[in-house]
Amino acid sequence: MNCAEFRHWLDDGRPGLHDGATAHAQRCPACAAALEADRTIERLLSQGPSAAPAGFTGRVMARVVARAAPARVPVMPAPALPWWARAARDPAAVLALAVAALLAGRWSALWAASSTAGQGAAQWVARAISAGLSAAGVAVSLPSPIRADALLGLEIGAACLALLAAPWLYRTTLRHAARAALGR
């Protein structure tokens, strides 16, 4: 018998009396130690369970409580955004809406509106952009009569920015409402 066969014989629970195993254990110190350890384990298991020392359970439970993690405060999940806010967050949706608006209103009608009636709103957007850039330290000078195609671009850009800002505005409003409800 070799060491591998001896370990297999031990792992199988020492089936039957095997003279080759005892002879091998007498020649091999490692296998002799393994056989002695196996016999010691068998002897301890045959004695039956022993009683725990007095106060053992109390000491263990005190250590468990001392090392327990502090209680976590449940965090309320953020409410799901409504469909229109999720759609407004997607740049492709914003672009599709802008293109659909151009096609629905016909280009010529949009062009005419931006050059006549829409001139006041477009001029206001242009002045607001100019004022914002000036406040940021960027020198901008817009021509006094802004061309109709530039006004149309400003109007469409402002509409797209408003759509992109809608989810942020919605979440900010919810946060402020929650803080007001909690009294903070």
Please, could you describe this protein's structure?
The protein has nine helices and no strands. With 184 residues, the chain is an all-alpha fold. α7 crosses α9. It is elongated and about 110 Å long. 5% of the residues are buried. The model has no long low-confidence stretch (mean pLDDT 76).
Tell how many strands the DSSP assignment holds. 0
- Whole-number average pLDDT? 76
Name the structural class: mainly alpha
> In angstroms, what separates the terminal alpha carbons?
80 Å
Which percent band covers the strand fraction?
Answer: under 5%
Largest beta-sheet characterization: none
Helix content: over 70%
Oligomer: single chain
**What's the number of structural domains?**
2
Evaluate the radius of gyration. Answer: 41 Å
Report the principal-axis shape.
Answer: elongated
With helices defined by DSSP (H or I, 4 residues minimum), what is the helix count? 9
SSE topology string: HHHHHHHHH
Q: Runs with pLDDT <50, length 5+?
A: none
